[in-house]
Automatic annotation (TrEMBL):
<dbReference type="InterPro" id="IPR011006">
    <property type="entry name" value="CheY-like_superfamily"/>
</dbReference>
<feature type="domain" description="OmpR/PhoB-type">
    <location>
        <begin position="128"/>
        <end position="226"/>
    </location>
</feature>
<protein>
    <submittedName>
        <fullName>Response regulator transcription factor</fullName>
    </submittedName>
</protein>
<keyword id="KW-0805">Transcription regulation</keyword>
<dbReference type="GO" id="GO:0000156">
    <property type="term" value="F:phosphorelay response regulator activity"/>
</dbReference>
<dbReference type="InterPro" id="IPR036388">
    <property type="entry name" value="WH-like_DNA-bd_sf"/>
</dbReference>
<feature type="domain" description="Response regulatory">
    <location>
        <begin position="3"/>
        <end position="116"/>
    </location>
</feature>
<dbReference type="GO" id="GO:0000976">
    <property type="term" value="F:transcription cis-regulatory region binding"/>
</dbReference>
<feature type="modified residue" description="4-aspartylphosphate">
    <location>
        <position position="52"/>
    </location>
</feature>
<dbReference type="GO" id="GO:0005829">
    <property type="term" value="C:cytosol"/>
</dbReference>
<dbReference type="InterPro" id="IPR039420">
    <property type="entry name" value="WalR-like"/>
</dbReference>
<keyword id="KW-0902">Two-component regulatory system</keyword>
<dbReference type="InterPro" id="IPR001789">
    <property type="entry name" value="Sig_transdc_resp-reg_receiver"/>
</dbReference>
<keyword id="KW-0963">Cytoplasm</keyword>
<dbReference type="InterPro" id="IPR016032">
    <property type="entry name" value="Sig_transdc_resp-reg_C-effctor"/>
</dbReference>
<dbReference type="Pfam" id="PF00072">
    <property type="entry name" value="Response_reg"/>
</dbReference>
<dbReference type="GO" id="GO:0006355">
    <property type="term" value="P:regulation of DNA-templated transcription"/>
</dbReference>
Amino acid sequence: MSKILLIEDDRALFEEIKQQLQQWNFHVYGIENWEEVMETFIHIKPELILIDIQLPKYDGFYWCRMIRAQSTVPILFLSSREHPTDHVMSMQLGADDYIQKPFHLDVLVAKVQATLRRVYNYNHEEQRTTQTWQGAIINVENNTVTSNDGKVELTKNEMFILKNLLSKRNHIVSRDELIKELWDDKRFISDNTLTVNVNRLRKQLEVIGLGTFIETKVGQGYMAVDEGV
């Protein structure tokens, strides 16, 4: 199991994050003595660090500097502060990501997994069943889309359409191509049925703030917009 050092002084939030990460087979450690943060880090040798900015004695930026002075371990900041300078500062100090509170725990898990895969080239099973899009987590195994605004469950056809659109992000996928993919997957679908399914997909995504990112290109098809690409 990957070891994660969670440097968070809010005990309720610490336990909530710990329980969620443990469900994904991560071993989570915390700080028992705020005078011994570096000693804890050196003793545990974590594969990843989650750290709040506002902490007892010294802030997260201080500990990030101390850790970076002797390690390249990936660091993800967790913060309820909305100052743009905090985000900039964390990146300048060598952090790998900055996650704004409040956040959905599924989003946090996905960011942890993605960071570990990138840094250590891990090959977790979940890599084949989840992907990120516009900050949301797409889980093709249970047909759910989760963002900070909530979670929706799609039908199999809706998820199949979304998965195909996401495979060609920021590129138009023609209606004929989508229908062919659905037919080849043994799904009976007509041109009119495709329209109905895409409209339902968009309405579902609107619930969690993602509806505008599925664009209709008149006379051409559909496109999943991804500003992060």
